[in-house]
Design the sequence.
């Protein structure tokens, strides 16, 4: 799926993005998604426990490699205050990289963009703690 070097780049991007927001960003890469990408993302969101943050401000970038699907979802704390099309620009940005077979770059740029978006609504607080591990998960 991703080399160890590429995985480290993605994790570094998550850490950098979370430095300026209290939001939590997670990336999950799946081989297959036989359903709509958003449905797969919702299912994985809850399996991974991303709904457990105190401010309900977890976000998941979900990528299905073989089916060429991508989705981004946020928890209820995010969805309650952001516009309906909040994730669309980031999805478009990532898809452009993916079309050019630049998975790692697309993930890193998407993570960066998600961090910037979350920073607007959930800036980093003095007492902020990292509630979720900064890692990629795979299925």
Sequence:
């Amino acid at each position: 799926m991703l080399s160890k070097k590429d995985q480290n780049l993605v994790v570094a991007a998550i850490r950098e993005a979370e430095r300026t927001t209290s939001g939590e960003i997670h990336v999950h890469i799946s081989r297959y998604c036989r359903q709509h990408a958003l449905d797969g993302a919702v299912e994985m969101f809850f399996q991974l426990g991303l709904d457990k943050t105190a401010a309900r401000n977890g976000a998941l970038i979900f990528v299905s490699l073989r089916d060429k699907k991508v989705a981004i979802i946020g928890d209820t704390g995010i969805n309650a205050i952001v516009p309906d099309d909040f994730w669309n620009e980031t999805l478009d940005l990532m898809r452009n990289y993916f079309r050019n077979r630049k998975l790692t770059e697309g993930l890193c740029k998407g993570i960066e963009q998600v961090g910037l978006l979350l920073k607007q609504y959930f800036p980093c607080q003095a007492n902020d703690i990292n509630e979720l591990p900064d890692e990629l998960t795979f299925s």
